Amino acid sequence: MSTSVRVAVIGHAFMGKAHIHAWRTASRFFDLPRTPEVTLLVGRDSGRAAAAAQQLNVAESTTDWRTAVTRDDIDVVDICTPGDSHREIAVAALAAGKHVLCEKPLANSVEEAEEMTAAAAAADAKGITSFCGFSYRRTPGLALARRFVEEGRLGEIRHVRAQYLQDWLSDANAPLTWRLDKDKAGSGSLGDIGAHSIDAAQWVSGQRIEGVSALLHTFVTSRPVAGVAEGLGGAGDATSEKGPVTVDDAAAFTARFDGGAVGVFEATRFALGRRNANRLEINGSLGSVAFDFERMNELEYFDGRDDQQAQGFRRIHVTDSVHPYTGNWWPVGHGLGYGDLFIHQVADVIDALGGGPQTRPNFADALEVQRVLHAVETSAEDSSRYTPVAR
Amino acid sequence: MSTSVRVAVIGHAFMGKAHIHAWRTASRFFDLPRTPEVTLLVGRDSGRAAAAAQQLNVAESTTDWRTAVTRDDIDVVDICTPGDSHREIAVAALAAGKHVLCEKPLANSVEEAEEMTAAAAAADAKGITSFCGFSYRRTPGLALARRFVEEGRLGEIRHVRAQYLQDWLSDANAPLTWRLDKDKAGSGSLGDIGAHSIDAAQWVSGQRIEGVSALLHTFVTSRPVAGVAEGLGGAGDATSEKGPVTVDDAAAFTARFDGGAVGVFEATRFALGRRNANRLEINGSLGSVAFDFERMNELEYFDGRDDQQAQGFRRIHVTDSVHPYTGNWWPVGHGLGYGDLFIHQVADVIDALGGGPQTRPNFADALEVQRVLHAVETSAEDSSRYTPVAR
Amino acid sequence: MSTSVRVAVIGHAFMGKAHIHAWRTASRFFDLPRTPEVTLLVGRDSGRAAAAAQQLNVAESTTDWRTAVTRDDIDVVDICTPGDSHREIAVAALAAGKHVLCEKPLANSVEEAEEMTAAAAAADAKGITSFCGFSYRRTPGLALARRFVEEGRLGEIRHVRAQYLQDWLSDANAPLTWRLDKDKAGSGSLGDIGAHSIDAAQWVSGQRIEGVSALLHTFVTSRPVAGVAEGLGGAGDATSEKGPVTVDDAAAFTARFDGGAVGVFEATRFALGRRNANRLEINGSLGSVAFDFERMNELEYFDGRDDQQAQGFRRIHVTDSVHPYTGNWWPVGHGLGYGDLFIHQVADVIDALGGGPQTRPNFADALEVQRVLHAVETSAEDSSRYTPVAR
Amino acid sequence: MSTSVRVAVIGHAFMGKAHIHAWRTASRFFDLPRTPEVTLLVGRDSGRAAAAAQQLNVAESTTDWRTAVTRDDIDVVDICTPGDSHREIAVAALAAGKHVLCEKPLANSVEEAEEMTAAAAAADAKGITSFCGFSYRRTPGLALARRFVEEGRLGEIRHVRAQYLQDWLSDANAPLTWRLDKDKAGSGSLGDIGAHSIDAAQWVSGQRIEGVSALLHTFVTSRPVAGVAEGLGGAGDATSEKGPVTVDDAAAFTARFDGGAVGVFEATRFALGRRNANRLEINGSLGSVAFDFERMNELEYFDGRDDQQAQGFRRIHVTDSVHPYTGNWWPVGHGLGYGDLFIHQVADVIDALGGGPQTRPNFADALEVQRVLHAVETSAEDSSRYTPVAR
After folding, report:
1. Which domains, from first to last, does chain B contain?
2. pLDDT digits (tens, 9 = 90+) for D247-281
């Protein structure tokens, strides 16, 4: 039976590793129409790519991503590289008739994202599908929140409150990496983690952001150059060479949604003690939900229709057989981890490729996020003035 | 011994009742230099004022606040009325040589607040003192947060994150009251609860807000007129007469502080399920604190200097003998309530009147809050454009 | 109108102070049929009693408790002394026609408690009422739990899980006090705090404990004698004189209830970090409740009849107008403190004296607790063998 | 390089599936001395075993476990069957020179466990190793708790408090399964989940249980027979045939440890709303730890040496690079799931087989748990009398 789905993964760092693990595991837990297998791994350095392929049990590796695009025995190209290379690879892969899964943010600019979305639309007409890896949508708790909104449990939505708080840059002597370089990363906390909040907020609420008023800030404007600092004996060395930080350390903005909701967003890597607090709270006229990824197996839910004396936020342990994704795993109460989200993502992608319902977000959805990121940057440069999201 | 402090309280609703309870209780738990006693209660309605005086054990009542100002046997005038009357009473009382404790917000406009502050400064030269009732400063948990900042435990402050979430207006058929009338209340959630956040944020952080970018929003623009609706048989009646809501239901703004911190503020009465979530989180380079009034006996504290494997937010039960205020109460772990804050406030005021250290906030401090409220309103009317706080 | 209720309070330490505050405050917040006033304070030391009377605003003080019993102008005798004096005072007061409120535990032995209960029964026939001060029954959260059981929300009760965890004896050099002396205190953690758990468990569940299997343990068997240690310059001094601890530091027992529930109880003063964790959880066939006094304004409630995907423990902020006691206080979300429980207790007592419904627990209820304490001690001395509660 | 470790897995239900996933994944995330691969799957039903083998990507399947023992190309026999078959398989495998990983509880009786431990000791002399699958030891949070005890952070341990609360039998009409049959399962909640608590408590505290006083209870003594009930159209059908429940629904016991600690244990499947609350709290003279598997990525830690005003339980997010196991996974704050524990177990087993430090628990450790289970049952049958653990 020719039901396998052959995947080439571009990149094998944090994201690449998570993706490969997912491709090779999803069919062990989910009943999928086709069985994925990673047949090619692409990395920049030949030796490191080969070593990674061996550890991750991938048969072949190469340093040329074009191989993945041109070979006939590849069905899906999975792009796990920094944002500045997304456009070129994705457009080529789609043109070559490969399905594409691209990590978020989709691109480093609206222009690139638009070009990619156009390519995806053209490919779609030929049965070729695009996906963007906003993996938090695969969290059972957030998916349950989305389901609650769809079921009308929240009523009319008034408030969206999103925070994405990390702290790994709190130390002013933490070294300069490519993530702090605007040319490579596009932006800082805004695109790296704020993009997740924007996608989740729009998806769960079912409303699009109409406009924003934003502030971007860089607390530590120069940092020790990583390589040099190491060579000299430590990041804190007085003689360390320093280089400029060219992205934002923190982003904050208020927003108006097209369904009447008001939003408050904050993303930062300087919230000391908050390790990965990806939080979303939505208040409606009938109910509320609140989520924090640091407790990813839980969703707080308030039902305003409960009798008055018994009202309170319910701590739902989102591990029941009736919850999204969790019926394929362990008995109730046993909990999933971050890595499992990627398995869910693969299951959804394979379902779609096997004829199941469309899996979102696609490139067009991801472009929506990119447009908001752009409006945020525009507002921040214009004295925080309210800036409509251009569509 | 002539050590009593004779107090006239103007108003006997929610706040007035809390104040009178505090004046008559503080010396039972705190060792005070002078003993307060409420000698006069002022209310608008003669019968209701007399009834309140009887229940609250106050010897005399009147409907004319000028009595409180002119009588010789009054040392302190305590103003617990809506904001539109603060200026007139406070200025008259100060001029008459009465110490004044005035509820927050200090006034309904910067102009009024400036006039009051000028009057307070003039009175101060004669040994007359002004206080403003930002009572949350008397919460042991927030006072401990302030102490931690003063002790340098947080290092350089980067983030201030303040939310004041209530939900009592979530129901679109809740009746129109004076709190929804701009002429009476000055503003809505902004002045009523956002003002608490602003005061707490500036006080705990030790930094002043330099400028803001703000959004104000009214979700429900008209509501049943209370009296009429009742007469017609229910707030939801289709034939109910409705009146306009002229204040904000929700306020949100980003802020920059003069010490380099970035702030995000939100105040609303539409966060369904959040009863009185007055929250403040501050992240510094060395530590963080987080507070939520719904758990008023706790303070979360993160110390970034703990050894790496043992770092985590500490849930401090702020009821120990070494914590602010709590040594005068119960054994550790037994907890205080909202009403006790006013007892702390009285204790601080009496300490100051008895020769102890100055008690803050005074009118000048409260004017600082008023200026921020004004900047918020100005920015909201000007497309959220960044607006410096005028000083 | 002769509607005042005149109270004599015996004892003015921790409990006495809390009671006096409550007697003088209750009618300010609750609409009571009669108005209580403390007319006499009794203490062992003349000077200290007089000073306490002055601070607490009580007109008279004396060192002879018999004065309280014999004077005509006393309606209620409120006993706030250590357990070894309860019997004598209570029996005399009841015989003299005084209503009696007695602190818990009711006595230091079942025999004493039985004598007191007999006296209360005899007095009851003459319209004289007895009360025992298990004040935690006045916590809104626990009272709500009781209401939920009464409403059938829990169904058939299976599990009762009670912990009372404190830590003030964790330091092995903490001094020897009368609370560690069996002759004075009766027992250690068992009677002091375990008694609260037993009363709350039986009251909330509506079931009586039938038998227990128990363990008592003393971790630190001798401690510095307080006075001596201080004289020698510190509790840790090597030459400090030490005295024996004659009570339990910790108590643990399993229990069977007459309604079929199974119980697990633990009381200790050595649970480092737990300040006053008076916890009660009950699991039934339809629902569950969980309470922790360290978060006294909250009750966790699980409703097994919620639809499956939305089930979870609800964090109820027990401060709503429809909750027990709280309608007389502040707006929802503002929270009460430990001291307020005594105000509720006074309100309930005065309601009963004014012709309202009987207020529990009375002496007979408290005797039930005493019987369980006795069974626990008997089992612990008999190799933890299951020991029926003798009735 | 012949460094692979060839594994036969007996059983492919809940546990078998988790184990196979772990064997095939561990070397992708951990740097292991040898690479495991599952070469044979054993199941009772030929067709279902083959289907499972295909889904889980195992090359071969069989219905005869003896194949796994006798074949030369098997290095490890991994026993994931119910407890009544452990002894026979394990003893045969060890005798045949296979390393054995056996699920918990080790056996259904002390006698069986002793025989298995003797076989393991004999095998050990030939370089053959035994392991028992108390997988919760692989939870980073519990492993960190163990580390803290080893580092002396808790001081002298006084209290061990273990609860394992589930609720999947709360419904009295849930069907009868083999887990409710004493012949198959050995015991009910006691052996199934209480065994985990016993192992964790002894391991983390570093103390052994010396004796217990116990209570076992069955709330629902008969239940619908599964097959019949299904055939008749529903578990609640009035005409359903019912069969007897022959195991405990709940177990509770107090314990004394050989290092002076006092323990309280409870295990139940009737704690409605508690999904998988495997909790352990330990209080020492210097510090405390508290863990709940429903929040498996957290450990609460209290350090009594913190300065007094800043003491509180720290919520440690146990996902840092310095925490046990977590450095091989994701960035801090991203969290692991239940399935990952088995990957840690494989990593530890392979490390040991590759010459690294011994991995615990071995059969001798698991026998310790079995002895405690036996003492619990003996005490429960003897009126809860204190029963020493026979060794």
Report:
1. 4-135 (3.40.50.720), 140-295+297-336+361-381 (3.30.360.10)
2. 999 999 999 999 999 999 999 999 999 999 999 99
User: Across A227-296, where does the E strand assignment appear?
Assistant: 242-244, 250-257, 262-268, 277-284, 287-292
pLDDT tens for each residue of D302-359: 999 999 999 999 999 999 999 999 999 999 999 999 999 999 999 999 999 999 888 9
D334–A331 CB contact, under 8 Å: no
Alpha-carbon Rg for chain D in angstroms: 21
Q: Which residue of B has its CA nearest to D319?
A: B309
Enumerate the residues of chain B whose CB falls inside 8 A of the CB of residue C193.
none
Please write the tens of the pLDDT for every residue from C32-78.
Answer: 999 999 999 999 999 999 999 999 999 999 999 999 999 999 999 99
Three-class DSSP category at D173: coil
The number of CA neighbours under 13 Å toward the Cβ of A115 is 13
CB–CB contact A384 B254 (8 Å): yes
Inform me whether the C-beta atom of residue B291 falls under 8 Å from chain D C-beta atoms.
no
Q: Say if residues C69 and C42 touch (Cβ distance below 8 Å).
A: no
* Sign (positive or negative) of CA dihedral C204, C205, C210, C212: negative
Residues of chain A with C-beta less than 8 angstroms from the C-beta of D331? 14, 168, 276
**Subunits with 3+ C-beta pairs closer than 8 A to A:** B, C, D
What is the dihedral angle through the alpha carbons of A116, A352, A348, A28, rounded to the nearest 10 degrees?
A: -130
Cβ-count burial A174-209 (b if 16+ within 10 Å, e if not)? bbbeebbbeebbbbbbbbbbbbbbbbbbbbbbebeb
**The pLDDT value given to residue A62:** 97
B32 to chain C: closest CA residue: C55
D286 in contact with chain C, both atoms CB, cutoff 8 A: yes
Residues whose CB falls within 8 Å of the CB of residue A373, separated by 6 or more in sequence, listed in order: A105, A187, A190, A191, A194, A195, A198
- Considering only CB atoms, A313 lies closest to which of C306, C309, C314, namely C314
Helices and strands in chain A: count of H runs, count of E runs: 12, 17
Closest C-alpha among D170, D171, D169, D174 to residue D224: D174
Residue from D57, C193, C228, B157 nearest A24 by CA: D57
What residue has token string 């128990």?
Answer: C214
Q: Which of B299, B312, B320 sits opposite D314 (nearest CB)?
A: B312
B307: left (phi over 0), alpha (psi -120 to 50) or beta: beta
Angstrom distance (rounded) from CA D293 to CA D282: 15
Find chains touching chain C: ≥3 CB pairs under 8 Å: A, B, D
What residue spans of chain B are helical by DSSP H? 14-29, 46-56, 65-70, 86-95, 110-124, 140-150, 182-185, 189, 195-205, 226-232, 338-353, 363-381
Q: Strand locations in A269-366, DSSP E?
A: 277-284, 287-292, 298-303, 313-317
Query: Based on C-alpha coordinates, what's the Rg of chain C?
Result: 21
C291 CB within 8 Å of a chain A CB: no
pLDDT tens-digit map of B358-388: 899 999 999 999 999 999 999 999 999 999 9
Which whole-number Å values give the CA distances from A42 to A47, A78, A345, in the listed order? 11, 10, 21
By the 10 Å C-beta count (0-12 exposed, 13-18 middle, 19+ buried), A119 is classed as buried
CB of B231 within 8 A of CB of B246?
no
Q: Which of B244, B242, B238 is nearest to B227 (CA)?
A: B242
Q: What share of chain A is helix, strand, coil (3-state, %, to 5)?
A: 40, 25, 35
Q: Is A312 in Cβ contact with C312 (below 8 Å)?
A: no
pLDDT bucket at D230, cuts 50 / 70 / 90: very low
Q: Which of residues 129-168 of D touch B (CB under 8 A)?
A: 144, 147-148, 153
Interface contact flag, D252 C272, Cβ < 8 Å: no
Tell me, what's the ipTM? Answer: 0.95
Q: What are the structure tokens assigned to D282, written together?
A: 């330990």
